[in-house]
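TA notes, week 10

Several of you asked for a full example with nothing omitted. So below is the full record: structure tokens for the whole chain, then the designed sequence directly under it. When grading your own attempts, check the secondary structure regions first.
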């Protein structure tokens, strides 16, 4: 197994989302950590990741399941869902160039939309799956 591509994949996803006009038109920022100070009313956060070995005779590889979240202070889900659609459009099937390894494929897996407990905030957690090689 190779976990070596994980930072390259995260950087490529971050760059794709923070550089996508459809995403940036709808959110106040894309963050790898919680925003410092008062967060924008709607933003994107890169979240947890689970990695499984997918190596074979031809080389090292892995399957990365990672979460991209939309967090919104809006009263309803509409603006969060619009941002989630833009994120899905930006990432699903994207041909990301990695600084290490190679992206074989990137797919949308599922999404969960919910109210944040104890607040009026809305949250959509989207799970994506990336298959990478580290040759």
């Amino acid at each position: 197994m190779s976990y070596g591509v994980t930072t390259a994949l995260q950087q490529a996803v971050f760059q794709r989302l923070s550089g996508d006009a459809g995403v940036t038109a709808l959110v106040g920022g894309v963050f790898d950590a919680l925003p410092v100070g008062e967060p924008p009313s709607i933003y994107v956060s890169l979240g947890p990741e689970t990695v499984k070995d997918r190596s074979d005779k031809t080389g090292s590889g892995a399957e990365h399941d990672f979460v991209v979240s939309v967090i919104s202070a809006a009263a309803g889900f509409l603006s969060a869902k619009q941002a989630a659609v833009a994120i899905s459009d930006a990432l699903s099937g994207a041909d990301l160039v990695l600084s290490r390894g190679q992206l074989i494929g990137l797919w949308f897996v599922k999404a969960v939309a919910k109210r944040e407990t104890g607040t009026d905030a809305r949250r959509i957690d989207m799970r994506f799956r990336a298959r990478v090689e580290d040759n």
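Strands lie at 30-31, 42-53, 60-72, 102-115, 122-134. Use that as a sanity check on your answer.
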